[in-house]
Amino acid sequence: MTKIPACFSETYAEAREKFIAAAKAKGAAVDSHEHPLKGPGGETLAMDVAYIGPADADAAIALGAGTHGVEGYCGSGLQTALLETGFADRLPEGAALVLIHAINPFGFAWSRRVNEDNVDLNRNFVDHDAPYPENPGYEELIDVINLPDLDPDTIKSAQEKLLAYADKNGFPALQHAMSAGQYAHPGGVQFGGNAPSWSQRTLREVVRKYLAPASRIVFIDFHSGLGPRGHGEIISTAAPGTPTYDRMTALWGDEVISTKGEGSVSSNIAGSITDFLAEELDGKTLAACGLEFGTLPITDVSFALQADNWLWQHGGAENPRAKEVATLIRNAFYVNEDDWKEEIFARAEEVAVKGLKGLE
Ligand SMILES: [Zn+2]
Questions:
Q1: In CATH, what number is assigned to the domain containing residue 295?
Q2: Domain around 50
Q3: Rounded to an integer, what distance in angstroms lies between the CA atom of residue 195 and that of residue 297?
Q4: Cα-Cα-Cα-Cα dihedral sign, residues 98, 271, 347, 359
Q5: pLDDT tens digits for 210-234?
Q6: pLDDT tens profile 265-284
Q7: CA of residue 1 to ligand 1 center, whole Å
């Protein structure tokens, strides 16, 4: 029997090896898109795609991991565990399974949520020729979101100012300011980029090659870092009442929570992968969600992102505090405990199995 925790890994290189081995053991064709940069151990970085099923499949379920780099510790483990526990054997006749490993391999390998350009990939799929979405809350809080140093006094003072903002404007307004993205400060937290990133361009190729030929597509992108520990929220960036949203509720019921409605752990964001899929696969029967697993309290997760951004504006891996900050950020997005891994796997499997109905 598959030991679920053993499907998770300590490094990107280990995760990649386990994923490719599990995929090949299931007869998958593995297509690797090599990234121009290397990992911390000099290892190859790549977006790896494993394809199981007939080449002309009219229906496909895709599972993504590592859109947010370091969140790949969660998503990669889930992909490998799903492969090893025989998820592919449950596909309806003629359907395909497409696993996209390390959508942002640089962030995964270097323990960052962002990519090699300090870009949050899930904010990068906007139209870069149009005016960018504005984030006035971010502008107001720019000096406290972006820490000048990691001295305890600086951190304490910044956290007090953030809490004062939440007291005045409500917690969702603070979360929006800190996490909805910004396009004006390339060295700042939550930068969405000013051009399509390597991961965006590569994912577009992958989607055109492996998903666009199908007419019925289900996409589940594994994320971590928001919500109660171990809980898996099904997040839709489609608004309630739209056909895409209705297709999602047909599969997953009222557990689908839209970022355009109320009650999601996520802010209403622009430039997400699920919005990109809706555009790229327009005319297809598509259900695309993020499956977001809770880790630590949001204040810890936010601080980890602030510390990470400070680090990479101050030398990155060369900085003496690099190890400490990398541990902080990894722990914010990946709970290295067996019970958490078992719990999120059970949830991922449940959501993926329900997703199979969308292929019929
Ligand atoms: Zn994420």
A1: 3.40.630.10
A2: 4-129+190-299+328-359
A3: 32
A4: negative
A5: 999 999 999 999 999 999 999 999 9
A6: 777 888 999 999 999 999 99
A7: 30
